[in-house]
Amino acid sequence: MAYHLPSPRRVSRMLLFALLTLPALAQGPASLVHKPAPPFVRTDLHHHSVDLSAYRGHVVLLNFWATWCAPCQVEIPRFVQWQTTYGTQGLQILGVSMEDDSAPALALTSRRHVNYPVVMGDAQLGRLYGGVLGLPVTFLIDRQGNIAAVYKGQANLNAMERDIRRLLSAGGQ
Amino acid sequence: MKRLVPFAIFSAILAITAPRAFAQPSHVSASTIPTDRLMQPADLPPLLAPSNAEKAPVVLQVGSRIFYTEAHIHGSIYAGAGSQPSGLAMLEKAVAAFPKDKFIVLYCGCCPWNRCPNIAPAFDRLRTLGYTNVKVLYIPNNFGDDWVSKGHPTDK
Fold first, then answer.
1. Model pTM?
2. CA of A131, closest CA in chain B: separation in Å?
3. Which of A22, A119, A148, B137 has the fewest other C-beta atoms within 10 Å?
C-alpha cells in the first residue's frame, strides 16, 4: 500500500488546526468564556436539524450530559421547568448527549418529558467546546452568541437560574 | 392440563433468568474502593516514562468511549464502560491475556468521584476475576480538570 507524505500546505493546515484547538483543550471549557460559541449543526433525537446559529437573539443554555451521569439527572427537571417558564422570554435550552448510543437518551428524554431539543454529541463537538471531558458541563450563551458562563460538575442551579434571568432581562439583540 | 406443563416450566425459567439477563448493574459508589488501591494522578506519569517500560502498568479507561476518543492517558486502552454489562464483558476480554499479578491501572473521570458509575464496578469485576495488582486513578472532579489541564501525558 502506497503511503504519500502530506503536502506542505496540508501539513501547515494541520499545524494551524492543532495550534488553534489544543490550547483550548488543555485549558478546558472555561477558556471559552466571553468568546463566540462555536457553531455546530446536528440532528436531534427526533431527526430535526439543530443549528446553533439559528438561535441568535435567544439566550441559549447548552447542556452536555449523559444518561449514566447522576448529577445530570438532577439538572434535567429544572431545565424542563425553565424552558416552560422562560421560553417565551427568549430562553432556548439545548441538550447534547455524550453517549455512544442514542437509545438510552431517547428513552430518558421521553420519560422525563424533555421539552427542548437534544442532539447526540461526539468527540469533535467536545473538542470544539474546549474539551468536554467530564459531565455535566453547561454553557450559557447570550443573545449575541457569546459564551457568558460555564458550569462544570454539580452546578448551583439557583445561581444558574439567576444568570439566565440576568441575560434575559438584557433584552433583545 | 398436560399441554400446560411445558408452558409452566418455560414461564418459571423465564421468571428466574429474565431479571438477571436484563438488569442494569446498580450504582456502586467509587467510595467503596479501598483507599490503599487508589493512585493519585501525579504518581502515574513517572510510571509511564519510557525508562520504566518494563514495569509500566497497563492503563485501562473504563468510562465513555467518546471521552476516550477526545482525549486519554498516553498509551491507555479503552476497555468499556464499567456501568454496562457489555462494558464489563469488554473489560474481561481486555485483561484476559494478562497474568493475575499484572499491574493494571483503571481510570474513568466522567463525573465527580462519588458519582462515577463506572469505576467501582470495573474494579470489582477485576477483583472477582482474581487480579491482585489493580490500582484505581483517583480523579476527584473529571478527567479534563484533573489530568489534561494538569499537563499530564495525554493522547488526543
1. 0.81
2. 7
3. A22
For the stretch B29-66, pLDDT in tens is 898 999 999 999 999 999 999 898 888 999 999 999 99
Burial of B55 (0-12, 13-18, 19+ CB in 10 A): exposed
* B28-155 CATH pick, 3.60.40.10, 2.130.10.10, 3.30.1360.70, 3.40.250.10: 3.40.250.10
- For chain A, which residues make up each domain, given as ranges? 28-169
- C-alpha to C-alpha distance for A30 and A39, rounded to whole angstroms: 17
The ipTM is 0.77
Q: Does A74 touch chain B (CB under 8 A)?
A: no
Which residues of chain A does B66 touch, with a Cβ-Cβ cutoff of 8 Å?
98-100, 121-123, 126
Here the cell at position A82 is: 425553565
Cα distance from N-terminal residue to C-terminal residue, chain B = 65
Chain A (80-139) residues lying within 8 Å, Cβ to Cβ, of chain B: 98-100, 121-123, 126-127, 131-135
Q: Identify the architecture of domain A28-169 in CATH.
A: 3-Layer(aba) Sandwich (3.40)
What is the distance, to the nearest Å, from the Cα of residue B51 to the centroid of all Cα atoms in its chain? 27
